[in-house]
Automatic annotation (TrEMBL):
Statement: the UniProt record of this protein carries the keyword Signal: yes
Annotated signal sequence range: 1-18
SUPFAM superfamilies: Thioredoxin-like
Protein's UniProt keywords contain Signal: yes
Protein name (database record): Cytochrome-c oxidase
UniProt keyword terms in alphabetical order: Signal
């Protein structure tokens, strides 16, 4: 039933949403989903060493649309509930051709409850070696929002690791995030401008 509903929604809604974020996608989603906030600032870099002594660099995923969340220590039920909602998003995406174009990334403290994903192949759980890093990164990324507040945020990055949009808390409809991701995957990958190339030199 969910697959049929998603197929109908994507078929009806894609023409309105399949634009680059700088054009109509952000405005359309902001009008449709109160928990959505457009954000077009370049996001902070994430380069860290994990507890497993592996290196993680968010730039390595720049050919994909990325759904990024943070689970700092003590976040508790709000983060757990958001993760469960994102599992619904992932399950919906798994039945579409988008599944190979998306990567879910959760940066989590060691004691954070991480929801089981529908497909571990496109959901990475990254635990930094530095125990303070998750809270610091979460606070740094939260500055991208003009709303403030204590609710966890889910960041959707378009290809090229540019900021695309923020979904706040757990009140957003999973289908709206799926539609937003669908709009990003249908857009042409953004070309790097001069400022982007200069920025990349310092990463």
């Amino acid at each position: 039933m969910r697959a049929l509903l998603l197929l109908v929604v994507l078929t009806v809604s894609t023409p309105a949403l399949a634009n680059h974020p700088g054009e109509l996608l952000d405005e359309t989603m902001a009008a449709k989903e109160p928990a959505f906030e457009p954000a077009d600032r370049r996001p902070p870099a994430i380069e860290l060493r994990t507890v497993d002594d592996l290196e993680f660099d968010l730039h390595d995923l720049e050919d994909k649309v990325v759904v990024l969340t943070f689970l700092p220590e003590g976040c508790g039920p709000p983060c757990a509930d958001q993760q469960a909602l994102l599992v619904e998003v992932q399950e919906a995406i798994e039945i579409t051709p988008m599944r190979d174009m998306i990567s879910f990334v959760t940066v989590a403290s060691p004691d954070s409850p991480v929801a089981p994903s529908a497909n571990d192949a496109n959901w990475l759980t990254v635990t930094p070696r530095d125990p303070e890093a998750v809270a610091e990164m979460s606070a740094e990324w939260a500055e991208l929002s003009s709303r403030g507040g204590e609710e966890p945020m889910a960041y959707v990055l378009d290809r090229g690791a540019r900021q695309a949009g923020i979904f706040h808390g757990t009140s957003f409809a999973w289908v709206n995030m799926v539609l937003y991701i669908n709009g990003l995957t249908n857009a042409h990958p953004p070309e790097s401008g001069l400022l982007d190339r200069i920025w990349d030199l310092f990463q």
